[in-house]
């Protein structure tokens, strides 16, 4: 089973989620650890191959977690956030920029074996 590594403040952010979306993210990450893809995990376009976004709706809010499976033998959780934009379902540009930055950080972490 692959290990889960948290990049930046993603672990702290997931702790602030209500329990139901936290459970969905946890289940999806377990699937990823086992080499499978959860039904709530979809490829995130525009970031790179092997990057997936988990979407969990709870009440009227949408919670998202982004992870990658293509760096070494680990699952790297790149970003966790509550989507607040009222403009459609796409991931906001500022979140994409942060995900790209954290993807670079994850590659550096893997190179250093952290």
In quaternary terms, these chains amount to single chain
Q: Let me know the number of strands.
A: 5
CATH architecture: 2-Layer Sandwich
Structural class: alpha+beta
User: Total number of helical segments?
Assistant: 3
Q: Can you write the helix and strand succession as a string?
A: EHHEEEEH
Q: How would you state the average pLDDT, rounded?
A: 92
Structure description:
The protein has 114 residues and is of the alpha+beta class. It has one domain: RelE-like (YaeB-like fold, 2-Layer Sandwich). It has helices at 10-15, 19-33, 93-112; strands at 3-6, 41-43, 51-58, 61-68, 74-83. A five-stranded mixed β-sheet has the order 1-5-4-3-2.
Quick overview of this protein structure:
The protein has 114 residues and is α+β, with helices and mostly antiparallel strands.
Give the SSE layout.
Blueprint: E1 3-6, H1 10-15, H2 19-33, E2 41-43, E3 51-58, E4 61-68, E5 74-83, H3 93-112
Parallel strand pairs: 1-5
Antiparallel strand pairs: 2-3, 3-4, 4-5
Brief descriptors of the model:
5-stranded mixed β-sheet; YaeB-like fold; 29% strand; alpha+beta; 114 residues; 5 strands; single chain
